[in-house]
């Protein structure tokens, strides 16, 4: 379990995060990306120490309310002793991605195209010459963008280590790829705000859907 630190963030801040994530969740569920309780969303509410509001585990993601988030620390464990609900089983990877990339929001969905793409290209999905690449911060032409694929694991510490093996820190020349496929499972996308994470998720899924369809 994480260090207990609910006094570092107000209840209203957590409630506000819950409201925002419930709205995003309803949107993605409407796309069919969060069926059968699949998927989870988080937003950073404090950076030092790292605290995230993450969706509670096992809920139908199409009908979340502002109360359906749990405060977690950098290891993904609950940071609020007053809240008996378990955080998302995948909160540990959310926290790791937020810490490693500096993202303010991390979104995970079970979009079927991501699963098919991970199966078809287990060494990473290469994309080029598409206007929509600009939506994840890359030029439309003259570059190959690779969305990395890691193997699925139930232990988030293992998945975090696998993330570190494939994540490339952005440079002045090469922008970040703000998305990840977990084979046989789904995808993650993140960004510097909720709207950026949403854009990266929606554009990333569009790119994967295009590739899956055009090569199918
Ligand atoms: C069909 S739900 C599968 C879960 O194990 C998991 O992958 C998931 O995305 C949702 O888990 P949760 O703990 O509700 O956040
Ligand atoms: Zn999942």
Descriptive keywords:
34% helix, binds 5-S-methyl-1-O-phosphono-5-thio-D-ribulose, seven-stranded mixed sheet, 5 helices, binds zinc ion, lyase, Aldolase_II/adducin_N_sf, EC 4.2.1.109, two-stranded antiparallel ribbon, alpha+beta, globular, L-fuculose-1-phosphate Aldolase, 9 strands, 216 residues
* C-alpha end-to-end distance: 44 Å
Question: Would you tell me which CATH topology applies?
Answer: L-fuculose-1-phosphate Aldolase
Strand order in the sheet with the most strands: 3-2-1-4-9-8-7
User: How would a textbook summarize the main sheet?
Assistant: 7 strands, mixed
Short note summarizing the structure:
This protein is an alpha+beta fold. The protein has five helices and nine strands. 5-S-methyl-1-O-phosphono-5-thio-D-ribulose binds at residues 36-40, 55, 57-58, 88-90.
Task: Note the topology.
Blueprint: H1 11-30, E1 40-46, E2 51-55, E3 69-72, H2 91-101, E4 105-109, H3 112-120, E5 125-127, E6 145-147, E7 149-150, H4 156-166, E8 179-182, E9 186-191, H5 194-215
Parallel strand pairs: 7-8
Antiparallel strand pairs: 1-2, 1-4, 2-3, 4-9, 5-6, 8-9
Helix pairs in contact: 2-4, 3-5
Bound molecules: 5-S-methyl-1-O-phosphono-5-thio-D-ribulose and zinc ion (ZN).
Please tell me about this protein's structure.
There is one protein chain. The protein is of the alpha+beta class and 216 residues long. It has a single domain, classed as 3-Layer(aba) Sandwich (L-fuculose-1-phosphate Aldolase), CATH 3.40.225.10. It is 34% helix and 18% strand. It has 5 helices and 9 strands. The chain has helices spanning 11-30, 91-101, 112-120, 156-166, 194-215; strands at 40-46, 51-55, 69-72, 105-109, 125-127, 145-147, 149-150, 179-182, 186-191. The strands form 2 sheets. A 7-stranded mixed β-sheet has the order 3-2-1-4-9-8-7, with helices on both faces. β8 (179-182) and β9 (186-191) form a beta hairpin. The longest helix has 22 residues, at 194-215. It starts with 10 loop residues before the first helix and ends with a helix. Zinc ion is lined by residues 38-39, 90, 108, 110, 185-186.
């Amino acid at each position: 379990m994480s260090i207990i630190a609910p006094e570092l963030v107000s209840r209203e801040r957590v409630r506000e995060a819950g409201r925002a994530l419930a709205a995003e969740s309803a949107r993605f569920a409407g796309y069919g990306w969060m069926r059968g309780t699949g998927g989870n969303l988080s937003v950073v509410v404090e950076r030092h120490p790292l605290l995230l509001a993450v969706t509670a585990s096992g809920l139908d993601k199409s009908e979340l309310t502002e109360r359906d988030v749990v405060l977690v620390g950098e290891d993904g464990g609950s940071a609020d002793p007053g809240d008996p609900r378990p955080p998302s089983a995948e909160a540990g990877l959310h926290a790791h991605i937020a810490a490693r990339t500096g993202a303010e929001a991390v979104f995970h969905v079970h979009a079927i195209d991501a699963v098919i793409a991970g199966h078809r290209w287990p060494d990473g999905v290469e994309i080029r010459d598409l206007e929509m690449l600009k939506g994840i911060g890359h030029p439309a032409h003259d570059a190959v963008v690779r969305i990395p694929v890691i193997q699925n694991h139930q232990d988030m510490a293992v998945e975090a280590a696998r993330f570190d093996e494939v994540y490339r820190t952005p440079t002045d020349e090469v922008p970040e790829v703000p998305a990840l496929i977990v084979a046989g499972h789904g995808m993650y996308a993140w960004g510097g705000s909720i709207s950026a994470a949403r854009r990266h998720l929606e554009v990333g899924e569009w790119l994967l859907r295009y590739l899956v369809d055009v090569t199918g």
